[in-house]
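User: Structure with adenosine monophosphate, tokens only please.
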Amino acid sequence: MKILFLGKAGSGKGTYSEMLSREFKIPKFNSGDILRDEIKKGTELGKEISSYIDKGNLAPIDIILKLINKYLSDIENFILDGFPRNLEQVKLFKTNFDVIFYLKCSDIIILRRLVNRRICPKCNKSYNLITIPPKKEGLCDVCGSRLVKRIDETKEAIKKRLEIYEKETLPLINYYGKKGNLIEINGDREINIVYNEIKSYLKKLINK
Ligand code: AMP
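Assistant:
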């Protein structure tokens, strides 16, 4: 089973891919986390990646493809979040997804979520101070590290990311829509309602 999540930053791709991954035991890969992990290693490659993503720009295609292929080369079943992100990546990756969940959200909800988002710099777990707060204020539930705001979640970088989404990623909705395996989900709603809807589509697909 190959599953892809599409949607703007803050639409919930990471949250739902993690929930599905845990419940259905399918490994998930988030291209943003893969890039951030490389930055954490402090390598030359990490520094190069940082110069793009901190400002909200896409990482170069050769870098992202190399990293993604390293993780996915031998895997049959996976959930992808954040990749492919434009038509160039779709063409180079050459993978047929069984289902694509498109989380459609309004801008006002997205901005509210991004302002309140915090992440764990160690294990990448994501929180929302209002809807998914950590059990202990400011600390990761999983590893206890101090939560931080993402570097690319300044006003300028968010604006840039949303512009790039409109220009580069939105055409994928049309592309996969025509193929017939894209499911549009209203991502503005409460987490459990959205998750149950995603799950019911997935179960139908698995039992087909
Ligand atoms: P995300 O965690 O999905 O919001 O991604 C954070 C940042 O990582 C993006 O703003 C891009 O700079 C970079 N990034 C993530 N996925 C990709 C991709 N598929 N292609 C290029 N850059 C990416």
